[in-house]
Amino acid sequence: MEYSARIAAKEDKKDITVLCRRAMGEKDYVIGILDKTIAAGGLFLAVERGRLIGVSNFQEIADGSAWLSMARTDPDYRGKRVAGFLQKVMALHARHMGIRKLRFLVNSSNTPSIRAAIRGGFQPICETAHVSFTLRKKDSNKRKQMWPLRLSNSEVASIISSSSYLEKLNGYLGFGWHFEKATVPAIRNASEKGKVYSFDGLKTVFLLGGAEAWDPSIDHGEFFVLKGTLGSIFKIIKDYGASIELDSIGTFLPYNSYLIRTALRENSFQLDPWADHGIVFERKI
Q: Which tens digits make up the pLDDT trace of 208-222?
């Protein structure tokens, strides 16, 4: 096995598209966002004798760690540790950048990726489920009053320590397609940027912000509940999302039967198959 690695350039798009289709099928979401992903400069390619055999994306996130995603391996090379090779390459890249933690999400049904993660020194840190809801534009006249919060350090610390949602996720929050550690500086920074909201003061606190949908033509929003009753938050989030003309809205929940049931049965969210039981892995480097 003599693999080499490099970062993708614009001219690699065609070969990456072919690989994604071979690995995941015609509807692979990565294909639709390849231009933006390549331009960001973190899409690593694994190559053997000039043939593209694997890809994986590297993204530095707010807490100073790196999020790995979009891992794809040519079907002819499955079981030949292509993913593990790219993980080692990206770990070296991270160390050169001063980054000391890598994270990624794998669905519990993806046994080969879980085995590769464990072989690569990654450990599971929390379990999650992603749910989403398709909004109806006809509800756009129902805008609900929500207010951005400007939180002090002590208020943020109190929210973090009392959040049952963060507790169930081992202190990590899922927001914008990645997981990061919920720290006072991280949430205070989100507060300063106008991403922390409430509709009843400090009784309910949640993060709200945009996120790129897998289909670039869809205007999608993500939120994360820090504090409050999930059912009431779901109702007001749906009305608010429709009022600002989002197409869909979603959130990462702790993998908990009661919370998932609240989302699905009581609030008509759908459980997304790519993370109906997701496991977040982390490796210190």
A: 987 666 666 788 999
> Would you say 182 and 172 are in contact if contact means Cβ atoms under 8 Å apart?
yes
Tens-digit pLDDT profile for residues 258-282: 999 999 999 999 999 999 999 999 9
> What is the structure's pLDDT at 95?
96
Q: Whole-angstrom Cα distance, residue 51 to residue 25?
A: 19
Task: Please tell me the distance from the alpha carbon of residue 149 to that of residue 3, in angstroms, as a whole number.
Answer: 50
Q: What is the dihedral of CA 194, 195, 200, 202, to 10 degrees?
A: -90
Which residues are bridge partners to 55 per DSSP? Answer: 45, 72
Rounded Cα gap, residues 268 and 137, in angstroms: 16
CA proximity to 58, closest of 31, 35, 88: 88
Question: Which domains occur in the chain, in start order?
Answer: 4-99 (3.40.630.30), 129-278 (3.40.630)
Q: Which residues contact 108 (CB under 8 A, 6 or more apart)?
A: 114, 127, 277, 278, 279
Lookup: tokens for 123: 């450990």
Please say whether the beta carbons of 130 and 279 come within 8 A. Answer: no
Place of tokens 């997701």: 278
